[in-house]
Amino acid sequence: MLQQLNSVKFKPGEDRWKWKSDNKGVFSVAATRNQIIKQHGIGVEEEWKYWNKWVPPKVNYFTWRVMIERIPVKKELIRRRIPMNNQLCSRCGIQEETVDHVICGCTSSKSVWKKILVWLKIPTSTEFRGCRETLEYVNELTGSNEWKKVIRTVFQTTVWNIWKSRNEKEFEDKLEPATT
Ligand SMILES: [Zn+2]
Q: Which of 30, 36, 98, 137 has the largest CB neighbor count within 10 A?
């Protein structure tokens, strides 16, 4: 340790933090996101296009992971050879637990989305098959960019809360609120 300290050179001026991944040493969420994308070897087409400053970074990051199917659903865990009792969704107990099933396809998730669409006054004939489709659907809507951002904020928060509720059922066996 002393050897290491010997090579340290002190510069005049105040101490400051330096973010190594940025050329100027300045931290930014965007640079960190790009670094994560690079580390995961994800192609440019998979870049997270829907970064939304109105929702917390953890929700943004989570929604992005949902879109690229990197959340620990049973199907993915089994694929990584993690022992599981079965591959079934613990909420409906009928279908395989995939990312799209948890977020959109499960009966309880469908019911949540339907209520959200009614609340937002968006045609309820829409049925989402996956997170990507959900967020891309917002692009098709007619309205100002700000309104679309509001809708995206609600959608991202919904994705986050569906996952939270799935975990409560999975790990704490908490009953979900009635979703009829
Ligand atoms: Zn299910």
A: 98
Q: Any residues with CB less than 8 A from the CB of 180 and at least 6 apart, and which? A: 111
| Per-residue pLDDT tens over the stretch 11-65 | 788 888 887 777 778 888 777 777 766 666 555 445 667 788 999 999 998 998 8
**Structure-block tokens of residue 140:** 């098709």
pLDDT at residue 180 in the model: 47
Compute, in angstroms, the gap from residue 19 CA to the centroid of ligand 1.
Answer: 42
Q: How far, in Å, is the centroid of ligand 1 from the Cα of 95?
A: 6
Ion ligand 1, residue ranges at CB < 5 A: 89, 91-92, 106
Contact residues for 82 (Cβ-Cβ < 8 A; gap 6+):
none
Give residue 166 CA to ligand 1 midpoint distance, Å: 9
**Model pLDDT, residue 39:** 65
Query: What is the torsion angle, in degrees rounded to the nearest 10, for the CA atoms of residue 129, residue 164, residue 96 and residue 108?
Result: -60
Tell me: pLDDT of 125 over 90.
no
CA of 89 to the centre of ligand 1 (A): 5
Query: Residue 39 corresponds to which tokens in the numbers above?
Result: 């580390």
CA–CA separation, 95 and 27 (whole Å) = 43
